[in-house]
Amino acid sequence: MAHRKLDREQIIEQALKTLGKSNSFSDFSLRKVATDLQVDVSTLYWHFKNKQEILQAMAEAIIAQVKLPNQQLEWTVQLKQLFSNIFDIYEQYPLAAILMVETIPSSLVRLQLIDRTIAIMTNAGVDEQTAHIAATSIDFLLTGLVIDLMIENRFRQQITTQQDQNLAGHVKKIRELAQTHHLEHMQASIKMRNQFSAKQQFEKGLDLIIDGLKQHTH
Amino acid sequence: MAHRKLDREQIIEQALKTLGKSNSFSDFSLRKVATDLQVDVSTLYWHFKNKQEILQAMAEAIIAQVKLPNQQLEWTVQLKQLFSNIFDIYEQYPLAAILMVETIPSSLVRLQLIDRTIAIMTNAGVDEQTAHIAATSIDFLLTGLVIDLMIENRFRQQITTQQDQNLAGHVKKIRELAQTHHLEHMQASIKMRNQFSAKQQFEKGLDLIIDGLKQHTH
DNA sequence: ACCTGAACACCGTTCAAGT
DNA sequence: ACCTGAACACCGTTCAAGT
């Protein structure tokens, strides 16, 4: 293709689409993005310094979509709404959570988001230190659950479509070990995972942390 | 080298050492493990099916080192001791946390660990559902913090040893953005990260979740 | 049974060369 | 200013061949 077509925005847009098509994060490559753009890989290196910079821009584009809750609302409602929004976006871009882990939160949008999260708590009377660790905890819980969810879905796909005996073996093994070694709580956990959606589990975890926070408010 | 030397145990032992020498998880490769073992890469494929299986065995070897707390102790003490032990092991093998994320917990040792964690809570009167989500939350908080810690250390190293302007730029940018956009809580967070160790932060997060759990016990 | 060597299909990154 | 093509140094994985 001739020149004078591409800009950074178009590259990031396609990169997010290409990431969406990928089965895993290691499946995602700049060469595939370039192919989808009908362009040589090396072209990307004129617009971006390296892969890390592209991932950074992708993460930024995703976080920019997060809608902040109304500040008039009660603080627990604000927290729940905010992270519910983030959860929904992560579900839309299933690999976005990994993107956040792989990337440094040095963009303004991401810093503002962290700042706002802490502000919600301190405005409710929580001390700065507790608010900081609570924000971190909620963030890790969210990304952890989404990554888990994604891995599970990938496995489910691989097992059904490609009949991957290896992965099917793992799932079977977990159930069997739980039974033969009488890991009763493990068995209950497996049931729970099937009974509640990842979002419901996240909400319960968030509630738990909020319960803890309430003891630090006054 | 001639044959009749290697076994799975030796490979995993060296793999953990090679992982320890790696600056990042993507830096770690089977080819490097093979070189350290003075053996051809393809040799590893006689002992293991693929890379995933090797990672799985590595994760298992690490978790096997976790010491379980005395069951006579009070439940909050048991929880704190258990996760303090896990934290210390993760600090010893800085990339172990990523290993856990990349890997399915289908080994007996890991399942037993999860089961035991939940058991500590249910024995204290916490319902099965809350105990399950709390165990998950604590686990994600721990791995999240350790991964963060590791990334930070890697950056610090790269900045000082290789004068990586790119990474130094990120750190500087965060401070600057926090100042110019008056992200006061963000500034306080940066201070706190320097003031408290990752372990101390984890302990505070754990305390928060325990505070939440106490409301579910009776 | 255990290991090697070569090959394959992938990566990210660089750089001289084109328009 | 923007893009290509070829090259480089890496990957994981397979497989015929050696001992």
From TrEMBL, chains A, B:
InterPro entries: Homeodomain-like_sf, HTH-type_TetR-like_transc_reg, HTH_TetR, Repressor_TetR_C, Tet_transcr_reg_TetR, Tet_transcr_reg_TetR-rel_C_sf. PROSITE patterns: HTH_TETR_2. Residues 29-48 bind DNA. It comes from the Bacteria. The keyword Heme does not apply. SUPFAM superfamilies: Homeodomain-like, Tetracyclin repressor-like, C-terminal domain. PANTHER family: HTH-TYPE TRANSCRIPTIONAL REGULATOR RUTR, TRANSCRIPTIONAL REGULATORY PROTEIN. This is TetR/AcrR family transcriptional regulator. The lineage of its organism: Bacteria, Bacillati, Bacillota, Bacilli, Lactobacillales.
